[in-house]
Amino acid sequence: MTIIAQLNYEVKDSQGLITPNTSIPLSMKINNCTPKYLIHKAIVIQDRNKRQGTASSKTRSEVRGGGKKPWKQKGTGQARSGSSNSPLWRGGGVTFGPKPRSYAKKINIKEKQLALTTALFNSMHKVTVVEDSFTNIIQPKTKAFVAALKKFVSLDETTRALVISHQTNENLTRSAQNIPNVHLSHMNNINVKEVLLAKHIIITQNALTNITGK
């Protein structure tokens, strides 16, 4: 069953302080009856769509050679054999081996969006909403970006953080690409798995409004 959850977020400025009179009330569609099923479905389909499906093995008809009968049918004392390409032989073909195939599976757009908003709603205890100006980086400096992140969350080598932005620019991308366990994502590209795995989620005000308002 889909319900409308009413939420109220406090927005923080670039110094990590709550900005007065800037809390944003949002109405978020979530699934409260089968959230685990819906989220599980979205993650499984996401992982399936990443598979290349290029594994390939040769059957006995595709293995080179093996045209001659190894030995005569009778009189040798050995088991009869017609070809060295038999799956029973070393170097022979493979029985029911893998062949190139597509593992892709579709999910309805509304289901995908509902799974994302449900996962985001259940992760609200680790979400920090910041002003849109947080992503306006003048120079691509990793040290400055890390210092900005530490004003909102505590970072270390084992803490996974997700930064969701409403816009992308080269300076922001280059500043974040070398930070361990910090993943930068555009609001149109985030997925359920990223939200669930992250210990800290930093999202701009505009990005949160767009994600939950779909």
Automatic annotation (TrEMBL):
Keywords: Plastid, Ribonucleoprotein, Ribosomal protein, RNA-binding, rRNA-binding
GO biological process, one term: translation
GO molecular function ontology, one term from the record: structural constituent of ribosome
GO CC, alphabetical: ribonucleoprotein complex; ribosome
Pfam families noted in UniProt: Ribosomal_L4
Spans annotated as Disordered: 49-96
PANTHER family, per the entry: 50S RIBOSOMAL PROTEIN L4, LARGE RIBOSOMAL SUBUNIT PROTEIN UL4C
HAMAP family in alphabetical order: Ribosomal_uL4_B
Protein name as annotated: Large ribosomal subunit protein uL4c
Native species: Cryptomonas curvata
Taxonomy of the source species: Eukaryota, Cryptophyceae, Cryptomonadales, Cryptomonadaceae, Cryptomonas
